Amino acid sequence: MKKIIIVLIIGIFVTGIISVSTFSDQYVDAGSTKKVHFTQTITSSQDPGLGYENNQLALVLSPNEGTIYDGSMTFTSSELVNVVVLHEINQNDVKGQDTWTINENTIYGKSVINPEKKSGSIEFTGAGVALHSTNSKEFTTTVSVDGWIRGQPTQVLEQKFEFQKEEPSLLLSRASIPVEIPMHKGMHNGNEILYIITDASTKDYVNTISEKQEYSIQLSKSLENIPENNLQKIFLFKNGIKGDGFFGFQNEIFFNTPEQSDYSPLATITEVTWKPGQKEIVFESASDIIDAEKSGRIKFNETNVVVNTPQIKWSSNQMTERSDKQISNKMSFSGGQITDINENEMIVTFVAHRSWDLDGKTIYYIITDVSPIGPSKLMGVTHSQSISDLLTHSSIIDQYQFKNGIKGSGSLDFQPEIFNFSSSEENYNPISKIYLVEWHDSKSAQILQTKSDIDSFRDNDLITVSIARPSNSEYVINSPIVDPFQ
Predict the structure, then answer these.
(1) Per-domain residue ranges for the chain?
(2) I need a surface site. Which of 100, 115, 332, 391 has the fewest CB within 10 A?
(3) d(CA 69, CA 72)
């Protein structure tokens, strides 16, 4: 919260007795949520209340029409004192209860906390709070107050008011929602892999995969431009022994998993077909498949199709499941991006984050792989060094995260991210390079919703856009776009 400290000097409360200060219009309109919080040493003066002229009063929270204070106070005093809590009442409601007034026009009910003591703590609710001594000897007291104000107090004794004004915020509806994505079984060196498919580089494979898994994936033609050394291979079987594989035969075989330093979620598809007359077996490793192809038992079809296949579980590890399964609009990005891995139904539930494309259209994305390793551990996702090698590649997109300004559901607790691709065009890529947007004056921040907004405000020198470098390494995320509502 933004904190505004105001020091108000003692003013005229009644002519010649207690001084009064008024808030400027800037703070009268400062917002509906106001917190009073201070520690102050106060010297008492003659009680201005009618009939209490021989008493001393240290006014801690002064009364004002329409003001209610609620909180707690701790005090220590040089003399024995009572705590007095005042309550605003109408003259017609005075029916014999203790009252306090300075001019008979404005009357306050009075609660006196006995016995007298030199120190103590109380909780209070009322229109004013004071410390009171029944003798005429001046006393000094130090008080600490922590509470809230309802209404607009216009006079107080010298003290600090700390207004806690809610910072501007943008909390989109359904900012974080669950998305259930089908899992598939694969193999690597005899160990089972569970993985998902979110994107493919050709329309034919997008349609085929979407139909077979009954969940639509995204077309990303730019994946075809990813250099081969930044990809791994995945073998899909078009015939052979029946099984749980994508085409109804044995499981897919991967070249690597996150245990290997060259792991990549991006893979080129090699279709494998058994030649007639060969004894079909179940392969468990890529090396066995390559040997079988060299011996002429099977044949390869190098499709050049690139798919995004983040691995959920592999031989000895898995992506982190969140401990807090309840998905909410204000949930943290740390602690995991998955709430459930259901191996019986072969469904994984991700947190889908609401954001905007470059034209301001709403999109949802998930986070599966990250480089460098620090942010990947923080978010509980897979580390992939290979995607960081794509930083200079023109096919990946830019993602803009906001490090100050309007509070919201973005990954850094400010407004949602903006992606530099148009969902109505064919320039989408699931790999995004992270940039940070910082307002020069966060108090003047506005909601930015499009890439052109960012460009305009940067040109006007209102924001700075810089490359994100956690752990002194540039920040790259596998952030595929998903449709949570299909």
Answers:
(1) 2-166, 182-312, 354-482
(2) 115
(3) 10
